[in-house]
């Protein structure tokens, strides 16, 4: 494009810009141009209003964009603060629960003052609806050594039977829970001169979280709702640890084959802190 052909376009642009500036400046009350252009105000007023409207629209749009960005930033800050507060509440609830368990464990210590109570937390469980073995975070380094003739009872903070120590390594131990088919303990009805019987895990019952009661004496008076505790026989489990409650009695043709079903007092799915009872 030649220089001459560009000149009219430049002229139009310059004149347009000049008019816009003139209109804006003349819109300010009291200005020299406002007074000078007053005779033309009727003609220029629609143009002035249009320009001012566009200017106000741009200003309002810019303010809305900045305000939206500020609100999004504040919302993100509030979201992070809420997440932090929820985490703190969870930690406080967990700390409170542990405090209550430890406070109750002090009462447990008073009840079994001849035993050293070593607290441990559950680390892992076997995969499945019910768990064959629990692993806790204490072991040989904490003075726990298991052999064919030596083991330890495991209870919760309320002095309810969880199981016994199955094996140990340097920093951890495995617990055989009461519902495991390999577990058995001598028990008795929790009453004066309560009859002795046996509580054991059962393969068909463990998925329901239940235990089998057998070796019930012919003369034993056993009822649904009776609570069974450890008898103290066998050398591993101190006497008087609560095992569970009878929920069903299965009578047999032979009295010697009487059986009952027991629900353990400990909720095996939710137990998280246990205490190993080590004789002193």
| Proportion of residues in extended strands | 25-35%
Low-confidence stretches: none
Distance between the ends: 107 Å
What letter string, H or E per element, gives the SSE order? HHHEEEEEEEEEEEE
Molecular shape: elongated
Mean of pLDDT: 78
Q: What's the CATH C level of the largest domain?
A: Mainly Beta
Using brief descriptors, characterize the structure shown.
six-stranded antiparallel β-barrel; 12 strands; 36% helix; 280 residues; alpha+beta
Question: What does this protein look like?
Answer:
With 280 residues, the chain is of the alpha+beta class. It folds into 2 domains: 1-111; 115-279, Rod shape-determining protein MreC, domain 2 (Thrombin, subunit H, Beta Barrel). Helix content is 36%, strand content 25%. It has a 6-stranded antiparallel barrel with strand order 1-2-5-4-3-12. A 6-stranded antiparallel beta barrel has the order 6-7-8-11-10-9. The chain is elongated and about 120 Å long.
Which helices and strands, and how do they pair?
Elements: H1 3-26, H2 32-36, H3 41-111, E1 115-125, E2 134-136, E3 153-155, E4 161-168, E5 173-177, E6 184-189, E7 196-200, E8 211-214, E9 227-230, E10 242-250, E11 259-264, E12 273-279
Question: How would you summarize this macromolecular structure in one to three sentences?
Answer:
The protein is of the alpha+beta class. It has 3 helices and 12 strands, in the order αααββββββββββββ. The chain folds into 2 domains: 111 residues; 165 residues, Rod shape-determining protein MreC, domain 2 (Thrombin, subunit H).
């Amino acid at each position: 494009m030649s220089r001459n052909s560009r000149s009219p376009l430049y002229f139009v642009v310059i004149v347009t810009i000049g008019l816009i500036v003139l209109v804006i400046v003349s819109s300010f009350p009291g200005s020299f141009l406002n007074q000078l252009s007053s005779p033309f105000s009727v003609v220029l007023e629609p143009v002035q209003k249009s320009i001012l409207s566009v200017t106000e629209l741009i200003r309002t749009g810019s303010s809305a964009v900045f305000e939206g960005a500020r609100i999004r930033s504040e919302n993100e800050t509030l979201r992070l603060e809420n997440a932090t507060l929820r985490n703190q509440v969870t930690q406080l609830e967990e700390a409170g629960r542990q405090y209550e368990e430890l406070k109750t464990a002090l009462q447990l210590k008073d009840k079994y003052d001849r035993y050293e109570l070593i607290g441990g937390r559950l680390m892992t469980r076997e995969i499945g609806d019910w768990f064959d073995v629990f692993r806790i975070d204490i072991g040989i380094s904490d003075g726990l050594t298991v052999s064919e003739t030596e083991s330890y009872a495991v209870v919760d903070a309320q002095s309810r039977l969880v199981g016994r120590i199955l094996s140990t390594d340097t920093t951890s131990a495995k617990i055989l829970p009461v519902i495991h088919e390999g577990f058995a303990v001598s028990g008795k009805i929790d009453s004066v001169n309560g009859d002795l019987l046996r509580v054991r895990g059962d393969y068909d019952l463990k998925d329901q979280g239940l235990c089998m009661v057998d070796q019930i004496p012919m003369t034993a008076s056993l009822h649904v709702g009776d609570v069974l505790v450890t008898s103290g026989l066998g050398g591993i489990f101190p006497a008087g640890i609560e095992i569970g409650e009878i929920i069903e009695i299965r009578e047999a043709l032979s009295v010697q084959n009487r059986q009952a079903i027991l629900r353990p007092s400990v909720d095996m799915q939710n137990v998280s802190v246990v205490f190993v009872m080590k004789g002193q």
